[in-house]
Write a structure and sequence with these properties.
Blueprint (H helix, E strand, L loop, with lengths): L2 E5 L2 E4 L4 E8 L8 E6 L6 E6 L5 E3 L7 E6 L4 E6 L8 E8 L3 E3 L3 E6 L1
Parallel strand pairs: 2-11
Antiparallel strand pairs: 1-3, 3-8, 4-5, 4-9, 5-6, 7-8, 9-10, 9-11
């Protein structure tokens, strides 16, 4: 079955950086677009970034120029490099794939202190 496992979250000061990773299994990874979403306390889950099978990327306006999504098909992983972090980036970050239905990882907490 499809399984997504995120890692790399933590506590960082404003202006700092973090790298999130998501390991996928149960799929032919290279055939799927991969996405990152986040959910802050009391807010709806929102799109952060995506990377297609041809490495085309798309970002939410709020993270453009600060976050970079990448993929490693040989390792079946997708990463999110986050720089110049702001307190408003504090959220649980989820890896996502759509394969007939939505699949989500368990999430990883990112906390940015001011």
């Amino acid at each position: 079955q499809v399984r997504l496992v995120e890692s790399g979250g933590g506590l960082v000061q404003a202006g700092g950086s973090l790298r999130l990773s998501c390991a996928a299994s149960g799929i032919i990874f290279s055939l799927h677009a991969m996405n990152w979403y986040r959910q802050a306390p009391g807010k709806l889950r929102e799109f952060v970034a995506s990377i297609g099978v041809g490495d085309m990327t798309n970002y939410a306006d709020s993270v453009k120029g600060r976050f970079t999504i990448s993929r490693d098909n040989a390792k079946s992983t997708v990463s999110l490099e986050m720089g110049n972090l702001k307190p408003e980036d504090t959220a649980v970050y989820y890896c996502h794939i759509f394969r007939g239905r939505d699949y989500w990882g368990q999430g990883t907490q990112v906390t940015v202190s001011s």
